[in-house]
Structure formats: structure tokens, C-alpha cells
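User: For my dataset I need records formatted as: sequence, then C-alpha cells, nothing else. Please produce one.
Assistant:
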Amino acid sequence: MTGPLPDLAAPPSNPNPNPDPGADQDQDQDWNGVWDWDGSWDLDLDPSAVRALWPLDGGVAHLNHGSYGAVPRPVQQEQDRWRARMDANPVRFFRREWQPAVEEARRAAAAFLGADPDGLALVANATAGVCAVLGSFDLRPGDEVVVTDHGYGAVTAAAARACARAGARLVTVRIPLTATAEQLAQAVLDAVGPRTRLAVLDEVTSPTARLVPVRRLVPELRTLGVAVLVDGAHTPGMLPVGLDELQPDFWTGNFHKWVCAPRGAAALWAAPEHRPTLRAPVLSWRDEEGFPYSFSMPGTADSSAILSLPAALALFDELGGWPRARARNNALAGYGQAVLARALDLRPGQGLSGDPDGGPDGGEFAPEPLLSMAALPLPEGLTGPDRVQQAIADRAGAETAVSDWNGRLVLRVSAHVYNHPEEYRQLARALPALLHELLAAEQN
């Protein structure tokens, strides 16, 4: 894919509201004020050919890439090749080939993340990275660990366990769904006290799809003597990372989400001062070499997901490069959010971008133009996130994410290169009546 990227600060210019072939004209919905999709995004590469790279069920709109990712066929084939090689001669593989191959993947990951290879280890997933940090960090009685109420549940639970074990206190910062960047940053900084030792911050929040200003918060918190663990579970492939520039104390992120590597591939980065004390949860033969090599041999394990990471990175170079893919995904997620918000009669708030044109104060959701996920609150009184998610899948033909955030259900949709704008319009047509029926059933 070649050509200039559209200006994401302005609505796309294509006047055709249904640029993709075969899309139904909307006779029952007034879409005035909703961005029309800029069909130029898909002119350089056949969208159907891109979709065919993923072995996804063609009868479903896969709008929840953010939860579990989706592995393209060429990457699956690379993983199969590694597994076949492992089983053809296990002794040769594990004794002579395994660790050199892991090292090659680790260095490819470091280059992609803009990280010093000496500070980067490969782990199974971001939660494993978080647990490694919390298991090594020297918390003491009376210390405080700061998290936000937008954090990923398993990570917050891991921080709570670490605090309970050490006699420390977990401090949860409450942040409105439509908080601006300044409001969010200030809320975190206001929670810091003389006993605060560690802050655990998502860069992209999982339940609410918000962009946390970690590039401001990391240096400010470190200046206050607070170590920062950035949960970048969604960051690789969605945002540029640049760990050598960001310089948090710790960072962890997944490759199985937006990079589309097989599940079981993630990274853990540590600043130089923490590397000598950061221990792998599974002690194995390379433990005496210290970080990061102590993480490279977690017993006898199937590392084919990690070994397939270079193939996943290379695939997106063939699809026009990472900047192009990220920009297309971000634009499509914003389009999907706008279409769904219009269908649900929700007003945008200012959001973390601080854009005064983002919407009136008191809006109900926050546009995030730099993210490939978007979230919207569902009607008040609706309960049962699993029930609602399944109903959307069964009756609207779309896989989405629905979570209970502070007593309000939140719908999250994702966008990746295999998604098309009509999938969001189709969901928007079905969603209002479906939610009305679910809410009525609860009230009866």
C-alpha cells in the first residue's frame, strides 16, 4: 500500500456513505453528522485479499480483535513449521537450535519496540510480565501502589495480591470515562503520597479504550521517586512504543493482539537499575545469567509463538508498513465508534485528546483518534456483560467486548486491517432494538 495518509484531524472527504461494494443503503437511519468512510484507504490493496489472509469465520463480524487477536495464515504456517522442526528431532531443537532462535526473536522484538536488547525479555503475555515485576519489586509494610479504575482486572488483582503479601496498600484512582488528558494525569499525580512506591498504569485501557498519557506521567512520577510499571498490553502494533525514549521503570506488552503473532508472545522491559533484581517466575537453567536471559528458557516449553514473531512483524511490512496499518485501523475504529454512537444517540465528550472540537462538555463517551479500539457506554440499568455480549454475537452477528465498568456496561469494538466499515454499520442497525429488548426483559 502506498500513497499519502489522510489527515486524521479532519473527517474523510469521500462523499459516498457506502464506499464498499455490496453495502446496503441506510433507508431507516439518518447518518448526517457521522463521518463517511474514506474509501481511498482500501484502494491500494484489495480488502478481500487482505481479509483472506485471516482464517476467520466469514459469517461473523469480528469486531473484538483487542481481546485475543487473530493469527494470519502465513504466521500460522510459520508456527507450524517451528513445531514440525521441534518434533522432527527434539534433542537437536532443544539442545542446539532453541535458544539461538529465541535470541533472534528477542532482538527483532527489541528493534520493533525501540528498546535496548539488554533490557528486553520475552514472556508469554503481558500479565505474566506484570506478575514477574510485582514478584520481584521490594514492597514493604505501609508502602502504597497506585492503580486506576480503568485497569485490566487481572493486573489490578495481581497488584492487590502483591500489596497483601507485603502489607502494602493499594490506592485506586477514580477517573471519569470522558476525562481529559490533563484531568487523568492530575488525578494520578494527586494520588501520590510520601509512601507511594509504584504506579501501575495502562497505556491503553482495556475495558474503556482510553489513552493514558504515560509519556507525561512517567517522567513526572519518576521525579517524585515513584517507580512506574506501564501495562502496554495493547500498545505494540497500535501505537509507536519507543522504550528507549519513554524510559519507564518497567513495561510489558503483547504481540498476539495488534501485531497478530500467535498467542503466547509478549515482551517485558526493565530499566537498567532494576535488571539485577528482576527474576523470572520459573527458575531454569539460564537463571544465573540474569535478566533478560533468565526468561529465555522457562523449562521445556513450546516457544513456537515467540519464534513466529519475526514472521508477524514482516507480514505488515508487506501490507504497506506499520504506520499505514495503524492509521487505517485508528480511522476505522473512530468511524465505528461514531456510527454506533449515532445509533445509540450518545454525545461525544472532549476526551483525552483535549480537542475542543471533540464534543460538548458532559458528553457520554470519549473519541480517541490514536487508538484502534473504541468504547461506548450502554444504557443504564442493563446488566450481565456476558449475556449482552452473547446476545450481540447471536442476534447481530458481531463479536464485541462488553464489560462492567463501575456498574455501567461498556461496549468496546476494535478495528484491524481485515475489518470493513459495513461491519460497524450492520451492528449499528441491529443494536438499538436489541438493547431495548434486553433492557425490557430485565425490567419485567
